[in-house]
Fold this sequence. Notes:
alpha+beta; two-stranded antiparallel sheet; Ubiquitin-like (UB roll)
Amino acid sequence: MSLNLQKRIEARELLWDERGLIPAIVQDADTHEVLMLAYMDREALQLSQEKGEVWLWSRSRSSLWHKGGTSGNIQHLCEIRVDCDADALLVLVHPAGPACHTGAVSCFFRALDCCPQQALNHEERM
């Protein structure tokens, strides 16, 4: 799949929420697996760009958070993409370990039991 990145924008053009945050979807740059959904403030975005590792804003602790700073599961920054409304980021990374605090590779390891076809489709992929 080839992606045509048509426009680059500056951080000042992003649409931050009323708390000064923007959702950041973190995705493995190689496998394209979605690893986690987090939030960035301006400082987290700037640190990520400067240091080449992912920094986030912890809403529960109200503090800056270096992803993997304690666990060693650093996420090395490859690229940051901006959605069409400039109100969400796609953060492409090379992870040094699991993204989830549970030890799972991705925070999205559970499925909502919502569709009768879901179980069949899952079994077909196995």
